[in-house]
Amino acid sequence: ETEELLIKYSLEAKETSYSPYSNFRVGAALLTKDGTWFKGCNIENASYGGAICAERTAYCKAISEGHKEFVALAVSSDQDEIVSPCGICRQFISEFGPGTLPVYLVTAKGAHKLITLSELLPLSFALEQGQKFLMK
Ligand code: THU
Questions:
Q1: 75-122, pLDDT tens digit by residue?
Q2: Is 17 near ligand 1, meaning CB less than 6 Å away?
Q3: DSSP-derived pairing of the beta strands 70-77 and 26-32
Q4: Strands 70-77 and 102-106
Q5: 132: CA distance to ligand 1 center in Å?
Q6: What share of the chain is helix, strand, coil (3-state, %, to 5)?
Q7: Active site residues per annotation
Q8: Where, in this chain's numbering, is Zn(2+) bound (predicted)?
Q9: Is 85 in the pocket of ligand 1 (CB under 6 A)?
């Protein structure tokens, strides 16, 4: 069932993490409205600042393949505690919404906390606010 697949795929996605600097492997699994799955891993860089998070990798793969409507996201790491998306990822994900998007925060053992996108980023600056700003 979808929840089990989200957790399973987010743990699988972690396996291709490129994280030689932090050894902090992160995996993400993303389900689109038409039922397509995308996995993503964090990809670090010698510049440190050039790294990209697993969530944004998954989103970039999905969007660049023509998907813009999402139904669920899961993020996992090797920790026993849940991994919480960074602020850059929260803003990036908010662009596509919906605020009710279920986000599964998965532990190394497959336990999870479920939270919505608008709980992760309340009062977000998203497209609609941008449009209001542009129209002034
Ligand atoms: N990182 C993620 O990939 N997702 C998160 O939700 C939190 C942080 C990675 C781990 C490490 O590679 C760091 O971000 C570098 O950007």
A1: 999 999 999 999 999 999 999 999 999 999 999 999 999 999 999 999
A2: no
A3: antiparallel
A4: parallel
A5: 32
A6: 35, 25, 40
A7: 55
A8: 53, 86, 89
A9: yes
The answer for residues whose C-beta is within 8 angstroms of residue 99's C-beta and 6 or more apart is: 116, 117, 118, 124
Burial 69-107 (b: 16+ CB within 10 A, else e): ebbbbbbbbbeeebbebeeebbebbbebbeeebbbbbbb
ipTM over 0.90: yes
Q: Cβ atoms within 10 A of the Cβ of 133, count?
A: 9
> Which ligand 1 atom is nearest residue 25's CA?
10
pLDDT digits (tens, 9 = 90+) for 18-36: 999 999 999 999 999 999 9
Going from the N-terminus, what domains does the chain have, and what CATH number goes with each?
1-135 (3.40.140.10)
